[in-house]
Design a protein that fits this description.
Two copies of one chain form a homodimer. By secondary structure, the first copy, chain A, is of the alpha/beta class. The first copy, chain A, contains nine helices and six strands. Chain A has a six-stranded parallel β-sheet, sandwiched between helices. Chain A is elongated, with a radius of gyration of 19 Å.
Chain lengths: ~240, ~240
């Protein structure tokens, strides 16, 4: 059994709601542009633009807003009104300013583990530095974390770099998160423990081919409320 | 004399050109919109929008592009064409994709200090995580740095956090950068050494009131080429 000393949490859709905010925003915008294009089709076009722009923009809310504006101009052949484009900007700002809503069980889980005294807690999250730091600060949990790592991509190289930077032994490290692609697969690949907490919505970009995880083993919990007991069990 | 062991460099306009790329981009866009508003006036309005958006967007190229689109819609009362808005997006992408051009003396300075063996070298830079990491990677210097810190704001709290995270004694630390506001004042306030390398262009947001530095002392060099000799001198 691993002697877990260091527990890291993903931010978006693990500690706080994110994909619901994005998809609510996307819905408002696709409704706004419904005269030009059917919402489902527009969402598909948006995803294509976002994917094409990933190389230059990276992840995050500002990238999403920029891709939304580009898509709106493109799919309407330039006939979208500037009022609508202004509204996309405004809806984007509301998204950035959206209150940080913790998921069920998060506050209790993080406080329990922090009080326990046996664990060092981290946040390891991907996306826009400014927006993510703002979310950590507004979560009300910031002071319970030992380190906050905001990274461009959560892959094997990134996890290895974090292990080295903070002197963490992978066998003592567990990652808790909602994404198989970012929080489970690379974590298992460095020999650490992964705890998957599914979130009802998954951004299309985060979907994984089931065959890639066919040989892997990880822990699955329904919410963060179940994590302290899981960790206790793993210590036995 | 301080025993300097750890030398950090700012990124934008210290290691590589940045403000010239931004201002070239801004010039292309203000020219594009010259039918609607005089370029100098438009630049003023853009700065006002950027400053108002700082709380939500933070620094960086994507924030700049979003503020530019908002300004273009606003100053034309919505009469800007979607072709022009599309062009703003395109110009913004070119900016993000712009080759990383090192300033004079940078490569030699960083290599000399890395080869010297007595120094640990860092990059401490502000702005968009994704874009800054991409610039570090494309600079060709990445492997010479011990650590790269991309931060939201370069203030006393940030520098203190970096000192603690990496076990750096401020008396052994020197920061080299082009901004009095970000690279000199807070660095002196934590008791470290600051080396200012002026860059011809200063983003309006970085201007400081001369009275705030009236009592301070720092080192000034014309380019990074002068830094190794300065450090040698400081060791004596």
């Amino acid at each position: 059994m691993p002697n877990l000393t260091t527990i890291a949490f993903d931010g978006d859709d693990t500690l706080w709601h994110n994909e619901t905010v994005f998809s609510m925003t996307e819905e408002r915008i696709t409704t706004l542009l419904a005269d030009h294009m059917e919402p489902a089709e527009l969402s598909k076009r948006l995803l294509a633009t976002e994917t094409a722009n990933l190389r230059l923009y990276g992840y995050g809310a500002k990238s999403f807003i920029l891709s939304m504006i580009e898509t709106a101009i493109e799919v309407t052949d330039g006939r979208v009104s500037t009022e609508h484009l202004k509204e996309i900007l405004d809806v984007g700002k509301e998204m950035l300013d959206h209150p940080v809503e913790l998921l069920e069980g998060v506050e209790e889980c993080v406080k329990t583990l922090a009080d326990d005294g046996r664990y060092r807690l981290l946040v390891i999250t991907k996306g826009d530095l400014f927006h993510q730091e703002s979310k950590v600060a507004r979560s009300g949990l910031a002071e319970l974390f030992w380190k906050v790592e905001i990274v461009v991509e959560k892959d094997v190289a990134t996890y290895r770099r974090i292990m080295t930077a903070h002197g963490i032994d992978p066998t003592e490290f567990a990652m808790v998160g909602n994404s198989l692609r970012s929080d489970v697969i690379p974590v298992l690949q460095i020999g650490a423990t992964a705890v998957h907490v599914p979130y009802p919505l998954v951004w299309a970009h985060e979907h994984v081919d089931p065959t890639t995880v066919a040989e892997l083993r990880w822990h699955e919990v329904g919410s963060l409320a179940a994590v302290p007991a899981l960790l206790d069990e793993l210590r036995r």
